[in-house]
Amino acid sequence: MDLKEEHLLGQMVKTHWYYKAKLAALMATIRDAPPKQILDVGAGSGYFSKALLEQADGLSALCVDCGYADDRDESIAGKPVAFRKTICASDADLVLMMDVIEHVEDDVALVAEYVGKVRSGTNFIVTVPAFMWLWSGHDVFLEHYRRYTLAQLTGVLRAAGLVVDAGQYFYASVLPLVVGVRAGKRLAGGMRHPESDMRTYSAAVNSLLYAVCRLEVAIMRYNRLAGTSVLVRAHKP
Q: Which domains does the chain carry?
């Protein structure tokens, strides 16, 4: 999770439709293999790994982010959460990279680094923004290097040494809205004044957007065509 967006939303991150929907997609993806030990790379506040400790069977989480000022330890639901700037190795059975690898120039090297830090059989869940034709001031503001197709992301993960198990697009239900908003900003000179598209909304609008995306979760595994995000599940052989 991007620290810039967390600073924009504050405590609203926990109830914002976008993050709630992405969490629902994550929960659906791990349903058949609920993790016990979680390594959350580029974790920010640890929103996703904390949710797995609260709502799933996770026992502990290790959150890694070079943006942390200091190492620290917390607990959530009575379970330990460690925040570290770097690590040497992990015994995690699930690695999360939620909207992380688009922030680095060498995405293969970053994934391969963490493949080397975990044991054989460890699962990976990786999400990235979809399609370069959706590039906008939002990406510039968040310091992205690129957006991906499903084929491009699976190629990166395989090059890093992972076996891809499943992949799909997500947020197809709001794609027309995103296209419209970004086209409007582009016409208004948004690339000259880049800013995040992330906003808070009224409770009614927030609930509606979440409900629409939540319905999509049930069929997302069949979506190989379009969306604003790509989600892939893989494992270390």
A: 3-235 (3.40.50.150)
Q: Report the C-alpha gap between 169 and 130 in whole angstroms.
A: 8
Condensed to tens digits (0 to 9), the pLDDT of residues 108-145 reads 999 999 999 999 999 999 999 999 999 988 899 999 99
Q: Kindly list the strands in the beta sheet with 163-170, ordered across the sheet, starting from the edge strand earlier in the chain.
A: 72-76, 79-84, 60-64, 37-41, 94-98, 123-129, 229-235, 163-170
- pTM exceeds 0.90 for this model: yes
User: Residue 60: in which H helix or E strand, if any?
Assistant: strand 60-64
String of DSSP letters for 111-122: HHHHHTTS-TT-
Please provide residue 213's backbone torsions phi and psi, each rounded to the nearest 5 degrees: -70, -35
Tokens of 187: 């016409």
- pLDDT tens digit sequence for 158-179: 999 999 999 999 999 999 999 9
Distance from C-alpha of 221 to C-alpha of 209, rounded to nearest angstrom:
20
Q: Any idea which residue has 């460890």 for tokens?
A: 122
